[in-house]
Amino acid sequence: MKLLVVGGGGREHALAWRLAQSPRVQKVFVAPGNGGTAREEAIENLPITDIEALARFAAKEGIAFTVVGPEAPLAAGIVDLFRARELPIFGPTRAAAQLESSKDFAKAFMRRQGIPTADYQTFTDALAARDYVAQRGAPIVVKADGLAAGKGVVVAETVEQAHAAIDSMLRDATLGSAGARVVIEDFLVGEEASFIVMVDGANVLTLATSQDHKRLLDDDLGPNTGGMGAYSPAPVVTPEIHAKVLREIIRPTVEGMAAEGNSYTGFLYAGLMIDAAGKPRALEFNCRLGDPEAQPILARVKSDFAAVIEQAIAGTLDAVELEWDRRTALGVVMSAHGYPANPRTGDRIDGLPPHGNAFGEDCTVFHAGTAEANGHVVTTGGRVLCVTALGDSVKMAHARAYEVLQHLSFDGMHFRRDIGFRAIARRADARSTPG
Ligand code: AMP
Ligand code: GLY
Questions:
Q1: Ligand nearest to the CA of 283
Q2: CA 70 / ligand 2 centre spacing (Å)
Q3: CA atoms of 43 and 81, how far apart (whole Å)
Q4: Is the separation of the CB atoms in 71 and 97 below 8 Å?
Q5: Co-location of 14 and 83 in the same domain
Q6: Is residue 415 part of a domain?
Q7: What is the largest CA-CA distance in the chain?
Q8: Residues 24-46: what's their mean pLDDT?
Q9: Which of 26, 103, 394, 431 is an S-S bond match for 423, by CB 3.0 to 4.6 Å?
Q10: What is the distance in A from the centroid of ligand 1 to the CA of 255?
Q11: What's the number of domains the chain is made of?
Q12: Is pTM beyond 0.85 here?
């Protein structure tokens, strides 16, 4: 069968790569794909991004099913369009994708359903928002309601910073309509984790846990980015916390959406803050796989993933048991000069394997902002590569990823050296604590 993956980042490379390994899959089209998907055997790039044109392609080509990577086509209604034409697709409808595309929708939903999250209020008026911040004090978090490509969240350490964020979004409209409403919420303390599941409207299939590293620089310093690296599993999510997240956050979300007539299908990503007492709260929902979390998660999937998605589309996820590689997977993002503010493009990447993207069975280099040009691979975006390795411990996966990374180079490249540091420290702690 032939499949279609929509998107062109590292997450979509990993999705297409994993799907292409299913025994019944002849070819995976990736629209638009990148320089890495262009190098994979059973994968073909498709230079289409318009959702109407994608639906026509899927119909004409007899695509068995489509999987959507990023949020923008979901918010544009790609799932509604494909379903109206009876083209199988895995993802949430436009209405259900509001869990990600509107922070106000998500917060109001969580409040209605009693899902643990930070207290908040929503504003369209800058003066009222400023008053609320003055009352609540800092630190406090200001979030644009709409999709803002990672630029919509300001964690303000002072009241002045929060006021500046409010003015920039509500008064100066620097984020356009995405910032015409803002959610202001209490600052939460703890350790973050990514909890991603597959949902078929009613049944939930949990994927392996993971942790992202959002800041640009080592020790979690520097500006927020889309994610500089991730690993799976995340030991911060103990079995007790895992059960709590399912009971208090995931199930009430899936059941609440169904009860409100807005049934959820697709990947569902809860961004968690876990406090010192082990209480998880939802920071946000995404209606897709995380990027870069998808790279280590999919590197560990041993089941036939195309069959799993077929079950999800059929509404029979309760019949699926996923098999995982017991090893830890760890992915390190290599980003371009100037990322995230102003990434430079057009730098030539050296050291990639002559064919494909694998450095042996235990390491794959997933591409994001790359393209093939005149026999070379060049950078085309902020996040360029994600070197993803498997190892028997997080330390070994870390060592293997950085060993492979040494072979790769491009002008202006940047990467963090400490991906996985929390899990590595947790292990060291566990060993030094008696009993
Ligand atoms: P979001 O897109 O809502 O996940 O926010 C992006 C990042 O901002 C999160 O990954 C957190 O690091 C941080 N953040 C968001 N909301 C809060 C909060 N209420 N308290 C503390 N940090 C937050
Ligand atoms: N890595 C965070 C995200 O995909 O939103």
A1: 1
A2: 10
A3: 24
A4: yes
A5: yes
A6: no
A7: 64
A8: 98
A9: 394
A10: 25
A11: 2
A12: yes
- Tell whether 291 is covered by a domain: no
Q: Which residues line ligand 2 (CB under 6 A)?
A: 212, 226-227, 286, 290-291, 293
Residue nearest to atom 5 of ligand 2 (CA): 290
For residue 367, being part of any structural domain is answered with no
Residue nearest ligand 2's atom 4 by CA? 290
The tens digit of pLDDT for each residue in 182-214 reads 999 999 999 999 999 999 999 999 999 999 999
Distance 245 CA to ligand 2 centre (A): 18
User: Mutate which of 153, 194, 214 to test ligand 2's pocket (most atoms within 8 Å of Cβ)?
Assistant: 194
Q: Residue 92 has what pLDDT?
A: 98
Does 272 sit in the ligand 1 pocket, CB within 6 Å?
Answer: no
What pLDDT is recorded for position 435?
Answer: 42
Whether 318 maps to a domain, the answer reads: no
Nearest to 205 by CA among 238, 262, 271, 254: 254
Alpha-carbon distance 22 to 91, whole Å? 20
Q: Residue 431's pLDDT band (boundaries 50, 70, 90)?
A: low
Per-residue model confidence as pLDDT tens digits over 289-330: 999 999 999 999 999 999 999 999 999 999 999 999 999 999
**pLDDT > 80? residue 429:** no
Atom of ligand 2 nearest to the CA of 289: 4
